[in-house]
Design a protein that fits this description.
Blueprint lengths: L9 H6 L9 E5 L3 E3 L3 H11 L11 E6 L8 E9 L4 H13 L7 H12 L7 E5 L5 E2 L6 H8 L5 E3 L6 H4 L3 H9 L4 H16 L11
Parallel strand pairs: 3-5, 6-7
Antiparallel strand pairs: 1-4, 2-7, 3-4
């Protein structure tokens, strides 16, 4: 899938933003991964659990969570940690593999190929680091886990909502209530947001100030 290759340019994107000149580590999330708890807590926990850099921080490497479908994929490609200075070789390698297998829907396939090349000693310029996902990320499905999160007011740091999921997948209105609850929107903020979306996608007259935030 061609669109997947663009995440491999994440360092280039960061380099375009002057406000991020001092950023050393990059935490990348796919658009279908929501943050459910203070992100700084996740950063600290992952730093404690994984020796980022260590004694060989000049070696190109990138970090991923172990894929929940480990029998099929080595890593979950939606969340990535990369060092700004040393991860470029790995990202370039990932991009080449994606470009060589554009017929594949999932970028995890290319990560599998990289992992295999590393294990076989064919790839020496990159290390694919797989982290234990622990209780850092959840994958809500039809099992009622979204409703349970809202009921208990307890969210994992990362919540992976499958990007093919629609309201009908979770049940009518569940997804909307979940996002409203996660963002802690008031009823007024929700109304204002709905008006803004309506203005952008369906059109309001310019003089209609009620549609602005």
């Amino acid at each position: 899938m061609t669109v997947k290759r663009f995440k491999t340019y994440v360092i280039d994107y960061v380099d375009m933003v002057p406000e991020l000149d001092d950023a050393e580590w990059i935490y990348y999330l796919d658009i279908d991964i929501l943050v459910g708890a203070p992100f700084i807590d996740l950063v600290q926990k992952l730093g404690e659990e994984n020796n980022f850099g260590g004694n060989d921080d000049t070696v190109s490497k990138f970090y991923f969570f172990k894929n929940p479908r480990a029998y099929q994929y080595v890593a979950q490609g939606g969340f990535m940690i990369a060092h700004r200075e040393t991860a470029k070789k790995c990202l370039e390698l990932w991009r080449r593999e994606i470009d060589s297998h554009l017929e594949e829907e999932h970028d995890q396939v290319s990560l599998n190929l990289i992992s295999r090349s590393i294990e076989e000693g064919k790839e020496l310029s990159c290390r694919l680091m797989v982290m234990d996902q622990g209780d850092h990320i959840s994958y809500p499905r039809r099992d009622g886990s979204l409703n349970n999160m809202m009921r208990d007011q307890s969210y994992t740091s990362l919540i992976h909502i499958r990007n093919t999921a629609k309201d009908t997948f979770f049940g009518e209105g569940v997804y909307e209530r979940f996002v409203t609850d996660l963002l802690m929107l008031t009823s007024e903020e929700k109304k204002q947001g709905e008006k803004l979306v309506t203005k952008r996608f369906f059109g309001y007259k310019e003089e209609d100030d009620s549609a602005t935030l």
